[in-house]
Amino acid sequence: MIGSSVYSGSNDGELHSRLTHLITSFGRPRIGVVGDLIADQFIYGSLDRVSREAPVLILKYDSTEVSPGGAGNAAQNVATLGGAVRLAGLVGDDEVGRRLRQNFPRRVVRAGLLRPKGYRTPTKTRILAGGVHSARQQVVRIDRDGSPITPEIRAAVGRAAASAVAECDAVIVSDYGSGLITPEFVAGMKRHLPRRGRRPIAPVLLDSRYGLLRYRGVTVAAPNESEVEHVLGTAIGDDLAALERAGRALLEKTRMSATLITRGSRGMALFQPSRPTQHIPIYGSDEVADVTGAGDTVIATMAVALSVGASYLEAALLANYAGGLVVMKRGTATVNSEELQGAIDGDLA
């Protein structure tokens, strides 16, 4: 149980009612997703024999699947939860890029998805093997980088992003390190968000693998603990004092409204300025099937929740449920609103 120790002032019944109300509104928001698209390619094979050429397994090829990763997976998750997506980024006119484009659902508007001539789609190829009666396990992963990002390409994506986010209720920025997304890019995009006076009213959620400290003034980030350790040059582990220092340092250095650090089997920790840290226990089993894309599920769930009026804590709680569900699925997976509601019903009702 999450319990009232995390959601101060409410019992489980009140929390269940509030989270249910938020989920029923998930079909309303328009979410902009901008950033690095990656093709997650899965090659499946069955174990055949050991090679005579080298001490390696020979796999008999079964099939190949291509799923949207990176910003594409965040877009998939938003659409599966019920939101309408405006996607902006790059994809190649290669075979894997064409398959990636075809795999988006109708709720993902791809007008901002550009295909520059000669651009190569970044691809993560995972080769999985297994027998007839056993689960397929990942044997090796091969990463192929995309083409270099020129200033002209970045400017074109910037124009597409400005158009995509102009009427959105929240925006996800996905920075996987290709060089497309920069602080200047994000600042330019923010000028096109819906505004109340001089201030944007749509929250901007940042998913930046190792460039988190370069950004200032976005609304929320949800790094995992290893990413935090990397950018701050520290170790956290089971040391809650080190975790507290790290979370407060991130807030101070980035001037965000909130930071959610995901900690795997240790759950999550939500940091907000001038408020006590909220520690959220892991939802579900710690017997994880696959963590591929789990961070995209977390950031997508937070974006949809914030866009319909959730507090940062409510958005974090919903993201915790979604993250706990998606890691029990294999491959680049998503969570829908019915599954999310079922998890809340089972935990809080």
Explain what this protein looks like in three dimensions:
This protein has helices at 12-24, 71-81, 95-102, 151-165, 183-190, 225-232, 240-254, 294-307, 312-326, 337-348; strands at 30-35, 37-50, 57-70, 84-90, 108-114, 123-130, 137-144, 170-175, 195-196, 199-200, 204-208, 220-221, 258-262, 268-271, 278-280. It is globular and about 65 Å long. With 349 residues, the chain is an alpha/beta fold.
- Total domain count: 1
- Cα-based radius of gyration, to the nearest Å: 20 Å
In percent terms, what proportion of residues is strand? 25-35%
Instruction: Bin the helical content.
Output: 25-40%
Order of helices and strands: HEEEHEHEEEHEHEEEEHHEEEHHH
Q: Give the overall silhouette.
A: globular
Query: Which CATH class applies here?
Result: Alpha Beta
**What is the strand arrangement across the widest sheet?**
5-4-1-8-11-12-13-14-15
Corresponding CATH superfamily: Ribokinase
* Coarse structural class: alpha/beta
Low-confidence stretches: 1-5
What is the CA–CA distance across the termini?
A: 10 Å
Average predicted local confidence, pLDDT: 90
What composes the largest sheet? 9 strands, mixed
CATH topology: UDP-N-acetylmuramoyl-L-alanine:D-glutamate ligase
Give the count of helical stretches: 10
Number of extended strands = 15
CATH architecture: 3-Layer(aba) Sandwich
